[in-house]
Fold this protein.
Amino acid sequence: MTSTFGSWTLPLWQSLLPLGRDAQTGGYQRFSYTQAESECRVWFRQVAADRNLRTECDKNGNLWAWWLPDNSKRELAGAIVLGSHLDSVPDGGAFDGPLGVVSAFAAIDLLRERGLVPARPVGVAAFVEEEGSRFGVACLGSRLLTGAMTAETARELTDADGVSLARAMRRAGLDPAQIGPDPERLARIAAYVELHIEQGSALAGMGAAVGVAESIWPHGRWRLEFTGRADHAGTTTLADRRDPMLPYAASVLAARTAAAEVGGLATFGKVVAVPGAANAICSAVHAWLDARAPDEARLGDLVERVLAAAQDSATGHGVTMSQRRDSFSQLVDFDLDLRDRLVRALAARKIVAPVLPTGAGHDAGVLAARLPAAMLFVRNPTGVSHSPAEHAEPADCAAGVAALAIVLEELACR
Ligand code: HGY
Ligand code: MN
Ligand code: MN
């Protein structure tokens, strides 16, 4: 990244880049409460300390850094919070999440360089397990904070090795008995603004460096388990097989067809063949369906079609199938007043920020159910995300920081 990212941002960005990076792929493996993610958490605390911002970890594992008005007696009411997340999908890109956290600190730096002081508290948040890559539920930190997921359910979530969230939190020095809704904390926040790399190329098509979020498509994850009978690949006749791979394959194709028919998106991005021998029929296949659509009716229709096709195929092949919904996010329409205020503040500084919907989920979407929330998007020239190839140009990242600083000045310094 060249210095056009902005001299104030470059060292900050570069200090985070090596953490959790896979030397082979160039992607990131920053999963909650692992070594790589804990290094990111140390980085967050250090960046805050360097800026004389008080840091805290809330009872759900989310990190917060606070820039307080001079006259504050540690009173946090009416706070404007910026932020995003530091965890990644497996082999994720550098920008999804971290760009929002780095830009939040950089926006504070910009205002301070101009001698501005906030009239209300300003927070930088890094929400834990946004991707759900380790424990399966996206936006876990903000869901717990808002009560969108119960503590009991969350404590029992397990990772691929069977380690529960409770155990992982204890290992990280946190007390899982404490997790759960935090209404006092939420009540102190007047607005949350998350800057994020766009996970599509709409802004590139419009020739705009930054945009403002309009809405988030409803979306969710479903876990399908097909159980058949393990057997020899070289001796079992086709007629004798109960192969769980077949209904799984039918489900993948049905997902593609149904998504096209309803105007949504459906993806099987994770599949585990058990036990996974090249020369054996599997005993079971576990697969995860990610489905999204512009509205809940179409999403429901899409998922119903996939599950019906999966069940039909399973029955036809003598395989049993079970399914459960791991997570669900309703349609989010971001707060209209806040959204318009952002657009107007940017327009007053000659920044034209188109308003656009997204199919990607965010903590801002979870928080939007409880408080005014908004998002800024930074142009992604290829639209690629959840991949090591994810990229934003340094000049656009700098434009994002400048836009976030304008928004912060508008919301917190007046
Ligand atoms: O999966 C998502 O939509 C987001 O990138 N966490
Ligand atoms: Mn993501
Ligand atoms: Mn993200």
